[in-house]
Design brief:
tRNA processing, 16 helices, flavoprotein, tRNA-binding, seven-stranded parallel beta sheet, FMN binding, about 10% strand, alpha/beta
Amino acid sequence: MMDWTDRHCRTFHRQLSRRALLYTEMVTAPALVRGGATHLLDFGSQEHPVALQLGGSEPGELARAARMGADHGYDEINLNVGCPSDRVQSGRFGAVLMREPELVAECCAGMIAAQPLPVTVKCRIGVDDQRPDDVLPDFLSKIRAAGVRRVTIHARMAWLQGLSPKENRDVPPLDYDLVHRMKAEFPDLHVSINGGITDLDQVETHLARGLDGVMIGRAAYHDPAMVLLEADQRIFGETGPAPTREEVVHAMLPYIDRHIAAGGKLGQVTRHMLGLFTGQPGARRWRRVLSEGASRPGADRELVLEALGEVTRAAA
């Protein structure tokens, strides 16, 4: 979710669910440790609970980056061993590390020893010519021995040769049953599943079958209300009412005001809000008003209220 789940996106998603664990974009350990890019760690207190997702393959560097994340107040440190992008591969980050479970275990051990937060791993079921039934249990065994107790498994292979990152999200077939078998084989691990899950009905099905959690990425971005609006009630057992889409918009206005007052642009926030009314009357007008107007000089909360007015009129 690089270039997607920035702090503005996370603040918006937090208005829909108070309980869902949010993740940062992947931040590379070299950027933090060698590049001094500590601004990449910035987040707001309203985002909790929030996990810092790191990329890297040098144990000492990852340990230092994890410690920096803990010092900044994150709730979890996550090591990404699932991203298939070319630039990640060239830096020896992401899914290519599925071929080096011993190195991943060493990295995790160093990150755990360096700071007090839980260290979790997001992985694939395998890459390229690997056999998932063989490689995934071995991978999980090694990171468990290093001290990892929570893992999220994207239930697809990553085909690093021949497929683009976009194709790797859709083309390799899903193998949900393998992830469920891993939970049965490693009952002491907290196992979450990822990949192809688009709504809370599917979430509830996976949880009912015994998994501990579900991670949703692009579906939560493109149709956030479908995924997040009732998550606190249906998944976490909250008894209060879920917010309405309109209430979410109004909850974002003070944040928008502060962002613009600090020199930010409206579009930096509203680009993440375009999918809020997906499937609802007025959704197209909402998107059009924000898309066309947010980049104009002086655009502020009034444009958001104008877009909301279009939705209200369409629903009348």
